[in-house]
UniProtKB/TrEMBL annotation:
The keyword Zinc applies. This is Aminopeptidase N. Residues 91-193 form the Aminopeptidase N-like N-terminal domain. It catalyses: Release of an N-terminal amino acid, Xaa-|-Yaa- from a peptide, amide or arylamide. Xaa is preferably Ala, but may be most amino acids including Pro (slow action). When a terminal hydrophobic residue is followed by a prolyl residue, the two may be released as an intact Xaa-Pro dipeptide. Residues 233-450 form the Peptidase M1 membrane alanine aminopeptidase domain.
Length: 890
């Protein structure tokens, strides 16, 4: 079957949506758990949807054995139904149907981590997007919603814990060494939200009082030995519950909410109703194994999954093309949650900066490559390939634009209307837009293009000042590049938040010609035409424009700033995002120029203006350390690459290292002071204030090691040896492993790396860091990766481990991955092919590392094309990988 698909992958189109022929009301399932053969008995009641053009009863099923199929109490003869291409079709079914189905699953052999699978002897499920069909034949599509009652039966010793969605309604002994538990989920849900967990697990639990006074049971389930790492997840869950009550008036609708951690998981986590399943990476933390970044990641993912309970579960998606309806909105919500928890204005801005960095580095790149797709795609071959930064992060930007256009209260009204209209329904992106438009009266018709057109719009700004008339004029023009299958884009509805700075650095009062609204700092201009001119009146001096404040739209802004203007913004802008942005523009300009100089073999030089601007920021103790940290951090090599039509990774690396070393050399004493002034002695706490200090201190340390001597080396070595937490320990180790100094020090660095391994060899998440750190170090070439792959702790079958070494090398070490001899690509092809057999989803993710191959010089292109072709020609290629490589080669 696979080979048919491989030769002719089936594309699914949004326009072909047909409502389901039958609805499901109730689903009862019994599981007899056994890794070799789990028997599943399903009984479901269904009724005909008279509004559908689909007259047959269609069920989906994959990789399962069908033992029995009964309709309304009668065994169905083989002639009464057909099974082909993963579909079971019953012809001439009556209007009301009770189906009884018995299936068998070889969960122990399921390495795809989709459907029912075994990890460390425990059972887990992953049903989004289409995993439920690997459990039983079912109308496995998100617009079919039923109420589920689940009975789990299994060996008492091997599977003491039996969990599923909703409330536990019965449990007991079966007398034969087995026991059972029955779970009932009172809410109707699509099958992708089904979950079960069974095995040896322990939990931290707490009764929590909701604002309404109702008490709920919260549990975090982990393997024995990890109970000392659950507190932060539990705290994050309580914070999430409180936040959703306060910010959106949304209450937890169940009496029990469970989080379960597994070390084998394809993604970050999954929002199954009442039973969220998480990658251990986003649950387990204590100061000795987790960094500040890990703590923040846990908080945001716990929030994300919890927020799905309303945005995703109570209101779900009509079809998978609408995926961003739940994902974009839920990412926006988790971003706001994290920002609100930090609390300060700078903290919010730094969170915004971090989110925009990801968007620009990963999503803008996706939008410019062969897999570019709209936030609401028109087609796909494999839906699992569409859990992308476009659906998630750009989707969140689209939601944020409503927020910017309608304001805090306006957005809340829109959300209220959305739930009022659609609670309990499976709906589309258009329904969300309609709720926002209808609740506010704002015309959002043109806004639809954010959903239908792919590509990153470019907004060009041109300004002029008329001193006599006291008018400052800004003309904004928009274009959007062609993307696969889409050319000649129509103008978007773009909110452009703008402020004007006077010579003293303060915001000027803003008044648009012919309009009554004024502002003391920022106005949101609405760019809807291809080009529009806005005129500000009463402007008594030529201002410096601060455009696209807080990154008010996911676009590239082009404006011919002078260095002087950027310096003025960096020093003064009241909008912290644009203040940071000015510094990034100054840096990017230099990095591009220096990359060109490297290519031409010219001498490299960094100008004093830039050095002094960074010195001033570094030393400005009125600024939050977290803000100084992000200003000090140069654009990544991947970001710099986006500035070039043809990318030369080695030259970019050389140029960036040169800038780092020059800054380190000139700012040495300032960096040392920043280091000394931001120590956080005493007990570790992941709170924002201490994390910010550690962040600045460790960025200073990393710089110091870019222009190293024995003293800076010792500083890092001592920090490593004496660290009381993983943040400091890992930062020091990272500095040491990127170290290029004397042989003696290099040897000492290698010893530290070995010590780290020995000290943490029983902590899988820390060993992931150990691989990650080495894979992304410039000292790590292809040969070194191959050597690390032979390490006893390495395995391709665990997604976290594969990501830590392989993905980090291919995606975060461009200067080595793009080795001139093509050896990096040969390794990539080998591993995509190996992973394809084990886990198609993970393989397809890795396959995306060569998406942008056409952006590289001819010699590299030739090697990349050969590697892509090698993968494409592989037998039994999953449609996941096939879709990615064939789009790359198209
Ligand atoms: N819905 C989850 C992410 C998720 C998506 C797909 C998965 O398998 C293909 C697993 C998890 C979320 O947004 O967190
Ligand atoms: Zn999500």
């Amino acid at each position: 079957m696979r080979t048919d698909i491989a030769s002719q992958p089936l594309t699914i189109f949004r326009k072909d949506y047909i409502a389901p022929g039958f609805w499901v009301d109730t689903v009862e399932m019994g599981f007899d758990l056994d890794p070799i053969a789990t028997h599943v008995a399903t009984r479901m009641t269904m009724r005909r949807n008279h509004d559908s053009s689909e007259k047959n009863l269609v069920l989906f099923g994959e990789t399962i054995k069908l033992l029995q199929l009964r309709m309304n109490g009668v065994n169905l003869k083989k002639s009464a139904y057909s099974i082909a291409d993963g579909k079971l079709t019953i012809l001439n079914a009556p209007d009301v149907v009770t189906l009884e189905i018995e299936t068998v699953i070889a969960a122990g052999k399921n390495t795809s981590m989709s459907g029912l699978y075994v990890s460390n002897g425990n059972f887990f499920t992953q049903c989004e997007a289409e995993g439920f069909r690997k459990i039983t034949y079912y109308p496995d599509r998100p617009d079919v919603m039923g109420t589920f009652t689940i009975m789990l039966r299994g060996d008492k010793k091997k599977y003491p814990v039996l969990l599923s969605n909703g409330n536990l309604i019965a449990e007991g002994d079966l007398g034969d060494g087995r026991h059972y538990a029955t779970w009932e989920d009172p809410f109707k849900k699509p099958s992708y939200l089904f979950a079960l967990v069974a095995g040896k697990l322990v939990c931290q639990e707490e009764k929590y009082k909701l604002k309404s006074g109702r008490k709920v049971l919260l549990q975090v389930w982990v393997e024995a030995g990890n109970l000392d790492k659950t507190q932060h997840a539990m705290d994050s869950l309580k914070n999430s519950i409180r936040w959703d009550e306060e910010r959106f008036g949304l209450e937890l609708d169940l009496d029990r909410f469970m989080i379960v951690a597994t070390s084998d998981f394809n993604m970050g986590a999954m929002e199954n109703k009442g039973l969220n399943i998480f990658n251990t990476k986003y649950v387990l933390a204590n100061p000795s194994i987790a960094t500040d970044v890990d703590y923040a990641g846990i908080e945001s993912v716990v929030g994300h999954e919890y927020f799905h309970n309303w945005t995703g579960n109570r209101v779900t998606c009509r079809d998978w093309f609408q995926l961003s309806l739940k994902e974009g909105l839920t990412v926006f919500r988790d971003q706001e949650f994290s920002a609100d928890l930090v609390g300060t204005e700078t903290g919010r801005a730094v969170k915004r900066i971090e989110d925009v960095r990801v968007l620009r580095q990963v999503q803008f790149s996706e939008d410019a490559g062969p897999m570019a797709h709209p936030v609401r795609p028109d087609s796909f071959v494999e839906i699992n390939n569409f859990y992308t930064v476009t659906i998630y992060e750009k989707g969140a930007e689209v939601v944020r634009m409503y927020y910017t256009l309608l304001g805090h209260d306006g957005f809340r009204k829109g959300m209220d209307l959305y739930f009022k209209r659609h609670d309990g329904q499976a709906v589309a992106c258009d329904d969300f837009r309609a709720a926002m438009a209808d609740s506010s009266g704002h015309d959002l018709a043109q806004f639809e293009r954010w959903y239908s057109q792919a590509g990153t719009p470019r907004v060009k700004a041109e300004t002029s000042y008329d001193a006599d008339a006291k008018i400052y004029q800004i003309t904004l023009s928009q274009t959007c590049p062609d993307t696969p299958g889409q050319s000649k884009k129509l103008p978007f509805h773009i909110p452009v938040a703008i402020g004007l700075l006077g010579a003293d650095g303060k915001d000027l009062k803003l008044q648009l010609e012919g309009q009554t609204t004024t502002s003391n700092n920022t106005l949101v201009l609405e760019l809807t035409a291809e080009s529009q001119t806005f005129r500000f009146t009463g402007i008594t001096q030529k201002p410096t424009p601060s455009i696209l404040r807080n990154f008010s739209a996911p676009v590239v802004l082009e404006y011919a700033y002078t260095d002087e203007e950027l310096g003025h913004l960096l020093a003064n802008d009241s909008d912290p995002f644009n203040r940071w942005e000015a510094g990034q523009r100054l840096a990017t300009r230099r990095l591009v120029k220096l990359t060109n100089a490297v290519q031409k073999g010219e001498e490299l030089e960094l100008d004093a203006m830039f050095i002094e601007a960074l010195r001033a920021t570094l030393n400005d103790t009125t600024l939050d350390p977290s803000f100084r940290e992000v200003v000090l951090t140069l654009p990544s090599e991947a970001m710099i690459a986006e500035e070039f039509a043809v990318v030369d990774p080695q030259s970019i690396h050389t140029a960036r290292q040169f800038v780092r070393a020059s800054l380190a050399q000139h700012l040495k004493s300032d960096l040392l002071s920043a280091y000394e002034n931001n120590l956080t002695p005493g007990k570790y706490s992941p709170d924002a204030v201490s994390a910010a200090k550690r962040g600045l201190k460790n960025v200073a340390l990393a710089y110091l090691l870019a222009w190293p001597d024995d003293a800076t080396f010792m500083l890092a070595k001592t920090q490593f040896d004496e660290a009381q937490n993983m943040t400091d320990r890992l930062a020091a180790l990272s500095g040491l492993s990127n170290f290029s100094g004397s042989a003696k020090n290099t040897k000492a660095a290698a010893q530290s790396l070995q010590k780290f391994y020995k000290d943490f060899k029983n902590e899988a998440l820390v060993i992931d860091k150990w691989f990650m750190l080495q894979a992304s170090a410039y000292t790590c070439d292809v040969a070194k990766v191959r050597e690390l792959m032979k390490h006893s702790a390495f395995t391709l079958s665990n997604p976290n481990r594969a990501r830590s070494l392989i993905f980090n090398f291919c995606n975060a070490n461009p200067a080595r991955f793009h080795a001139a001899d093509g050896s990096g690509y040969a390794l990539w092809a080998e591993l995509v092919i190996a992973l394809n057999k084990l886990n198609p989803q993970v393989a397809a993710r890795l396959a995306r590392s060569l998406d942008r191959w056409k952006k590289y010089p001819q010699n590299l292109q030739a090697h990349m094309k050969a590697a892509l072709q090698k993968v494409a020609e592989t037998k039994k290629l999953s449609k996941d990988v096939l879709e990615v490589v064939s789009k790359a080669l198209a």
